[in-house]
Amino acid sequence: xxxxHWSPNLSVGIEFMDTEHEQLxxxxxxxxxxLSSGQQERLAATLNELLRQTREHFxxxxxxxxxxxxxxxxxHKRLHDALLEELEEFxxxxxxxxxxxxxxxxxxxxxxxxxxxxxxxxxxxxxxxxAGARL
Length: 135
Ligand SMILES: [Fe+2]
Ligand SMILES: [Fe+2]
Description:
With 135 residues, this protein is mainly α. The protein has a single domain (14-130), classed as Hemerythrin-like (Four Helix Bundle (Hemerythrin (Met), subunit A)). Helices cover 74% and strands 0% of the residues. It has four helices and no strands. The protein has helices at residues 15-37, 43-67, 73-97, 104-130. The chain starts with 14 loop residues before the first helix and ends in a 5-residue tail after the last helix. The mean pLDDT is 93. One fe (ii) ion binds at residues 17, 21, 57, 61, 121.
């Protein structure tokens, strides 16, 4: 069963952000599936792909924040950077340990993403809508 799915109450009002959030949820679901079923072969590749997708999404948000002089840019970027660091750390740790981790990471990512969307990204989305941002 998928760990998470997108629903309209998660919309931040900006199409590219919603689309990418939904894609991120798909990647987290895939990771969760592998973590909960004990499949290890593809774990490193899945983690790398999740990192790539996350980095790309954060870069999109950050470039639009810069473009529109978003006042909370630094604060928002700090949250992004901290998550990337956690993800990288987890990937490196998993690679070294060689033993299968539990679903701790996907559970954590689910909570992180939901909270981040509902607070920080919704705030950003509201600002961009108000600024009549052309995306
Ligand atoms: Fe986001
Ligand atoms: Fe964000």
